[in-house]
Amino acid sequence: NAGVMQNPRHLVRRRGQEARLRCSPMKGHSHVYWYRQLPEEGLKFMVYLQKENIIDESGMPKERFSAEFPKEGPSILRIQQVVRGDSAAYFCASSPPEAIRPQHFGDGTRLSIL
Amino acid sequence: TQLLEQSPQFLSIQEGENLTVYCNSSSVFSSLQWYRQEPGEGPVLLVTVVTGGEVKKLKRLTFQFGDARKDSSLHITAAQPGDTGLYLCAGPGSARQLTFGSGTQLTVLP
């Protein structure tokens, strides 16, 4: 059973470029959650999506950040015009429809901004 | 906003010692989860506590949920180097997302 798959594992971008992070949930899971983790800190919720719907984006910055979970394919977290402060580890979690909270996390994408 | 505070932030101990880490909030949580995260990996769920006063054991790890469901503790007996990692507590927020504490970084020295 494949777990939550995230790619790339490491991503380096220069300031002003775009970063696209991908998350494939576990088989049968239709709910995806994105979190951001700064060094030596806990995870901060960003956005919660179901297939083709954003349910809660209260933790996502209004500018430059967007997320989608299309009917086919992985969930994408997109950061436009990246800045140094976007450097962090971004984690995705997934859950089946009946679960009341996410339980399975991917191993994250470490984003570094030069 | 429900906040979870974890203490201590850093803990370094010798192999074989016992330790306790804490997770506290001013808010009541319907449940709390504990995760362990190792460098370069995602958090892995250890346990979920649901009932006030509940105690759960996972080998050398003992998890307790406070009677008022505002706090939780994790006790490790006879710590081993393999226990090294970041221990995170988390509680449910709105819309099924999780609110995490800032974690306790545990280092067990051989």
How would you describe what is shown here?
The complex is a heterodimer of chains A (114) and B (110). Chain A is mainly beta and 114 residues long. Chain A has strands at residues 5-7, 10-13, 19-24, 31-37, 43-50, 53-56, 65-68, 75-79, 88-95, 104-105, 109-113. Chain A is built from no helices and 11 strands. In chain A, strands 2, 4, 5, 6, 9, 10 and 11 form a 7-stranded mixed sheet that branches. In chain A, strands 1-3-8-7 form a 4-stranded antiparallel sheet, with no helix packed on it. The N and C termini of chain A lie far apart (36 Å). The model of chain A has no long low-confidence stretch (mean pLDDT 92). In chain B, strands 2, 4, 5, 9, 10 and 11 form a 6-stranded mixed sheet that branches. In chain B, strand 9 and strand 10 form a beta hairpin. Chain B has 110 residues and is an all-beta fold. Chain B has strands at 5-7, 10-14, 19-24, 32-37, 44-49, 55-58, 61-65, 71-76, 85-92, 98-100, 104-109. The chains are: A mainly beta (114), B mainly beta (110). The A-B interface holds A 4, 31, 33, 35, 40-45, 48, 55-56, 58-59, 91, 93, 95, 99-108 and B 4, 6, 9, 33, 40-45, 88, 90, 92-103, 105.
Quickly describe the structure.
The complex is a heterodimer of chains A (114) and B (110). Chain A is mainly beta.
- Derived from helix and strand composition plus strand pairing, the structural class of chain A reads mainly beta
N-C termini distance of chain A: 36 Å
Name the average pLDDT of chain B: 93
On the 0-100 scale, what is the average pLDDT of chain A? Answer: 92
- Largest contact between chains: A-B, 28 and 25 residues
The stretches of 5 or more residues of chain B where confidence is low (pLDDT under 50) are none
Radius of gyration of chain B: 13 Å
Give helix % range of chain B: under 10%
- Give the helix level of chain A as a range of percent: under 10%
Q: Give the overall form of chain A.
A: globular
Q: What's the count of strands of chain B?
A: 11
